[in-house]
Specification:
Chain B: It is a multi-pass membrane protein. The structure holds 2 protein chains of 2 kinds. By secondary structure, chain A is α+β, with helices and mostly antiparallel strands. Helix content of chain A is 26%, strand content 20%. Chain A is built from 16 helices and 21 strands. In chain A, the strands form 5 sheets. In chain A, strands 1, 7, 8, 9, 10, 11, 12, 16, 17, 18 and 19 form an 11-stranded mixed β-sheet that branches. The radius of gyration of chain A is 26 Å and the shape is globular. The two termini of chain A are 35 Å apart. By secondary structure, chain B is mostly helical. Classes of the chains: A alpha+beta, B mainly alpha.
Chain lengths: 569, 336
């Protein structure tokens, strides 16, 4: 009997294997139809840092290592991840050595070598090139090809977390032979290379119509002879998020539509057609309300929101900052604007799990109007005749800015109503996203200038290590006229203790210790009210039911494993 | 007439120069930025480098003069080269590059032209073909049921925005009936009967939406103009002479009525080239209108500048054509 069972199990295993072999053949599943509602402008992510370009190009060109859907680093074009244990990462944290997979071929059939990796570094760090991903190569003094299969990266100073260059969809390796005449100022002129880079990925560009449609074909030299399952792929661009989702979920014309940023009830109606599904994954995006630590009174003119203007008359009071956070019901905001693609959060670093703090969830995640009112009463903010609190002639009335976007405007309305319950008034304002995020020093409406008391937007960090991100709240990173309003410490938060702790993080290599420090830094920002974190935003895309093998990923490109996608028979 | 045309053409040059300067200045003053759409994870120093690589660190006047040189000298020479095969100089000329795609703007425009001309142009043609007979009958049988229905439909077509009719058609014909695709395929090559059918199916909805809009507008003009003429003395005279009613209507009245209509139609031609921004966006036709709106959103100034300037040239040109046509159609009008 036992023997029979083993036999049976063996047969089942064989059948499972053979059935998986049945569709594991290159190009048997026809055309994969992809819809991006923001059309792709170029296939060179080094010339355009836009998410759409990074995703589209990741079907063709690949990094040495990338993040899987859990945020784990996986070796991609290399044999293993260099670590301190295996000696790939030197003890002094000054160099990193990647071992390339042998026999890798570019789609044109030539060998993929360490020289290509070195060239990629040179290409992106050329001072005249305006490389959009230059930050990925920060702190690197040299990249050299030790032998055709070994790449050694040297850092200018000890780098406790070295995985940035050639890691993730933002810094893929491009072919030296193709781009050799495109360095620096010549980069934009290489139109055919920028539109059809030669890569190691599962697809090659057959035809590229900028801002319209891209036609791909399976890469004949792809390293896995059984993949990709699709013979070709078409990536159409344009339109809007709702109609893109409709083309997958309701009419079934497309297999995959990127970024279904649509109100939950609209999506629910489309899902009723039963043709597709939504896949959601969470990265590090957090919608937050920044509280201005400096005075933003328009009467101050150009001094607004700078150190010269002095501290904010009411927001500098910790009690006010905490009360504003307590008054907000994050569940309602999530339900109304985000549905399944959002979670309430109080952290600015919400993921990965190892660095996500839970310390402040107890007081912060649930709305407590009573406690908020009590805090303000105790701090001496008393309600005036119109119900708005004031003290010494300072009213709790705020200019609340954000970018134009229907979900943001709805959130503004909700927050305004919640704050009204604690005697805080808000004047709502929104600016077009290209202006708000545009950073034009001449415009008064940019989020960097922060000519408002509070402002709301989303930010995140690349990869899984938050060090660089947490360093944005350093005192010297405040935007000001002196630095042309460049600087990422938008709330103008400043705490020497915080600065010291960031310094410690930058010297710590032990991963557990780093996570601990990151949590501490995150908690400091929450507790001291540098900002009010609202929603941990996920990425949401729609897929046809027949499309299988998808592993939705927020840490890397959404199409990171497109070689494994197949059509269910 | 000829000297008049020449004089007008001559005056068009300073007008266009002023227009190009105004467009450039407006775009420069607008508070949008080509790096504005990039993820916030890209730090400010890198953005500064990107702006420098786009040439944004140069003074306004230099950038404007460069654009003038590229538009009026380099690009025409390039077109001439590719048409004739001649070589001027070393052939290495700075072309107008789009900031978003980093490819020559003229190539983008050439790539977008076919679908825009097919969809928007065809819709304009259908609109005219529908509008003239409807307008004539409506006017001839004023206040009849036909006129009432025609007036109602044209009022609806004129006042309901295309972003409503477009989505409505998609919901009915794509989602519910599944007759037509909701996404336009610009890669489709018509080479046999089935691909022709596919082309007709994908053009049906956008053309219908735009044709309704165009027809509504033009019908009103035709009807009003016909009504003006139907009560003229010469019509009564013609009828008194015993001219057949058909000849009165189609030869005497229609011909005279079409004079202002032709002007309106000629003035509307440039709008074909500027594309139908909203309709193209809804059906993803990705023609010139979509190119313009994406460029505006992405602060792709060279592309916006070039496109709007070409539209300005077309408007100036068709204004002239309309004036000249007016003179040809109505011999009473003389400019000289």
């Amino acid at each position: 009997m036992k023997k029979f069972k083993i036999l049976l199990a063996g047969t089942v295993a064989c059948m499972a294997l053979s059935s998986s072999m049945a569709y594991a053949e290159r190009g048997t599943d026809g055309d994969l139809k992809i819809l991006f509602w923001q059309a792709v402008s170029t296939m060179n992510p080094y010339l355009s840092g836009g998410t759409k370009e990074v995703f589209a190009s990741s079907m063709v060109i690949e990094p040495l290592a990338r993040y899987d859907e859990t945020g784990e680093l996986v070796p991609w074009l290399v044999t293993e991840l260099p670590t301190l244990e295996n000696g790939g990462f030197s003890e002094d944290m000054l160099s990193l050595t990647w071992k390339l997979k042998p026999d890798l071929k570019w789609s044109d059939g030539t060998d993929f070598t360490a020289e290509d990796v070195v060239f990629t570094w040179k290409y992106c760090t050329d001072p005249n090139g305006g490389c959009a991903q230059a930050a990925q190569y920060e702190g690197i003094t040299n990249v050299e090809a030790v032998d055709p299969l070994t790449v050694k990266i040297t850092f200018s100073e000890a780098k406790p977390y070295p995985y940035s260059a050639f890691v993730g969809a933002q810094s893929p390796v491009i072919q030296a032979a193709q781009f050799k005449d495109c360095l620096g100022a010549a980069a934009p002129g290489c139109t055919s290379a920028n539109f059809g880079p030669i890569g190691t990925g599962p697809f090659v560009v057959k035809d590229f119509k900028p801002n319209d449609v891209i036609t791909f074909e399976a890469n004949p030299n792809y390293r896995d002879p059984a993949k990709p399952a699709f013979a070709s792929a078409t990536l159409k661009g344009g339109g809007d998020a709702a109609s893109a989702a409709r083309a997958v979920l309701e009419t079934g014309e497309y297999d995959y539509a990127w970024n279904a940023q649509v109100e939950p009830e609209v999506l629910a109606a489309m899902m009723a057609a039963g043709k597709g599904r939504l896949e959601i994954s969470f990265g590090t995006q957090v919608e937050r309300i920044n509280l201005n630590h400096f005075n933003a009174d328009p009467a101050l003119g150009d001094k607004r929101s700078t150190a010269e203007a002095g501290p904010h008359p009411s927001l500098s009071d910790p009690a006010v900052r905490r009360a504003l956070s307590l008054a907000i019901d994050r569940d309602i905001i999530v339900e109304a604007g985000y549905g399944q693609s959002g979670r309430p959060t109080c952290n600015i670093v919400p993921a990965p799990e190892t660095v996500a703090s839970t310390k402040n969830d107890s007081w912060c995640l649930t709305q407590d109007i009573e406690a908020a009112n009590k805090l303000l009463d105790e701090a001496g903010w008393e309600r005036g005749s119109d119900g708005i609190r004031e003290k010494d002639g300072v009213r709790l009335s705020y200019l609340y800015a954000t970018s134009t976007n229907s979900v943001r405007q709805a959130t503004q309305e909700l927050v305004k109503a919640m704050w009204a319950e604690i005697g805080v008034d808000a004047e709502l304002r929104n600016a077009s996203a290209s202006v708000f995020f545009g950073g034009d020093p001449a415009s008064p409406d940019t989020f960097q200038k922060f000519y408002a008391d509070v402002e709301m937007y989303t930010n995140n960090f690349d990869g899984t290590d938050p060090e660089k991100y947490l360093a944005e709240w350093l005192c010297d990173k405040m935007p000001s006229p002196a630095n042309g309003w460049q600087g990422q410490n938008i709330p103008r938060y400043c705490n020497p203790e915080y600065d010291a702790l960031v310094g410690e993080l930058s010297r710590t290599a032990d991963l557990e210790k780093r996570a601990e420090l990151s949590k501490q830094l995150n908690d400091m920002l929450t507790e001291e009210g540098a900002h009010i974190a609202l929603v941990h935003r996920g990425d949401q895309s729609s897929f046809a039911n027949s499309l299988q093998g998808v592993r939705m990923n927020s840490w890397d490109s959404q199409v990171w494993n497109i070689a494994d996608w197949y059509r269910a028979k | 007439m000829f000297t008049y045309t020449l004089r007008r053409l001559f005056f068009a040059i300073p007008t266009l120069l002023v227009i190009s300067f105004v467009i450039f200045a407006l775009l420069d003053l607008a508070p949008s930025d080509p790096t504005g759409d990039l993820p916030l994870t890209i730090p400010p120093e890198v953005r500064e480098q990107i702006r420098a690589s786009l040439g944004l660190d140069q003074p306004f006047l230099i950038r404007y003069l460069k654009w003038l040189q590229q538009f009026f000298i380099n690009e025409p020479l390039n077109i001439l080269e590719s048409l004739t095969g001649w070589q001027f100089g070393d052939g290495e000329r700075m072309r107008i590059l789009s900031w978003a795609t980093r490819s020559p703007v003229v190539d983008l425009i050439v790539q977008r032209m076919p679908q825009t001309l097919w969809v928007v142009g065809l819709a304009y043609l259908f609109g005219i073909l529908l509008a003239v007979p409807i307008g004539v009958i409506s006017a001839y049988k004023q206040y009849s049921i036909f006129d009432q229905i025609g007036t109602f439909v044209s009022m609806v077509g004129y006042s309901v925005p295309t972003f409503f009719t477009g989505v409505l058609l998609i919901v009915i014909f794509s989602s519910y009936l599944q007759w037509f695709p909701s996404v336009y395929d610009t890669n489709l090559v018509v080479n046999d009967f089935s691909s022709l059918m596919a082309q007709i199916r994908q053009m049906a909805m956008p053309v219908a939406v735009l044709a309704l809009y165009n027809a509504s507008q033009i019908t009103r003009f035709v009807r009003a103009s016909m009504l003006d003429n139907l009560h003229q003395d010469y019509v009564r005279t013609a009828r008194a002479k015993g001219v057949k009613e058909k000849a009165v209507l189609l030869v005497h009245v229609l011909r005279n009525s079409l004079i202002p209509v032709v002007t309106v139609i000629a003035l509307g031609v440039p709008t074909i080239f500027s594309g139908a921004i909203i309709t193209e966006q809804i059906f993803r036709v990705n023609g010139l209108g979509q190119l313009l709106i994406v460029a505006v959103q992405g602060a792709d100034i060279p592309l916006v500048q070039t496109l709007t300037f070409i539209f300005a040239v077309l408007i100036v040109l068709f204004n002239l054509i309309a004036d000249v046509l007016y003179g040809i159609l109505d011999p009473r009008i003389r400019y000289d």
